[in-house]
Write a structure and sequence with these properties.
single chain, alpha+beta, four-stranded antiparallel sheet, 6 helices, 16% strand, binds flavin mononucleotide
């Protein structure tokens, strides 16, 4: 199997992290990876806040019930709504939210490829995180990517490995039977 498919299949959300710090080079590589994610309109309407200060990380945890791990670093993915408006996206356009997902998925895979443990968190108080990070009024935090060194003993995955078979999640055309393997 090629390396990309292998990385996609072996990435897991890692919630058991050691107390060790992570090195700057790998954190930079994870931050750099986000700009390679596909973005709506090919615009970069997001801002990333890298949190490495231990006191600030502890404070983030206190306002984030979904942050089960104790991360050594966290990347807070924010949407800059002033940029979104100036680009001309109407409020109903889901692009900025979808971009949060593409950027997060890209960073999670990058972290995994570098041997880091990583996990997304969306269960947190947006208002409290914005205050803690002193964000401008139009910049709203939407997702936190937690990062650290994976602990040697990991709990079993929440669901069975791989999830449901892909065939059960896919419909072909207007409900047709799947075409036979080979050229289509
Ligand atoms: C949009 C989104 C929000 C999530 N929020 C949280 C969260 O707040 N806390 C958490 O521990 N995991 C969170 N997760 C991680 C999922 O629970 C995780 O992907 C799922 O358990 C499957 O784990 P796996 O990716 O290791 O297969 C989130 C995932 C996504 C995509």
């Amino acid at each position: 199997m090629n390396a990309v498919l292998q990385a996609i299949r072996t990435r897991r959300v890692v919630r058991a992290l050691t107390a060790e710090p992570i090195d700057r080079e790998r954190l930079d590589a994870v931050l750099d990876s986000a700009r390679f994610a596909p973005h709506a309109g090919n615009r970069r309407l997001h801002r990333y806040v890298a949190v490495v200060d231990p006191a600030l990380l502890r404070a983030l945890r206190m306002v984030s019930p979904g942050m089960l791990q104790h991360p050594a670093a966290a990347v807070v993915v924010c949407v800059d709504w002033a940029e979104v408006r100036s680009y001309g996206f109407p409020p109903s356009n889901p692009g900025p939210y979808i971009d949060v997902g593409t950027a997060a998925a890209t960073m999670l895979l990058a972290a995994h490829s570098l041997g880091l443990g990583a996990g997304p968190v969306t269960s947190f108080s947006r208002a409290a995180v914005a205050t803690l990070l002193d964000l401008p009024p139009d910049v709203r935090p939407e997702l936190i990517v937690c990062l650290g060194r994976p602990a040697p003993d990991q709990p079993p995955p929440v669901r069975r490995r791989g999830g449901p078979r892909w065939e059960t999640l896919v419909r072909w055309n207007r409900g047709d039977a799947a075409p036979p393997p080979g050229r289509m």
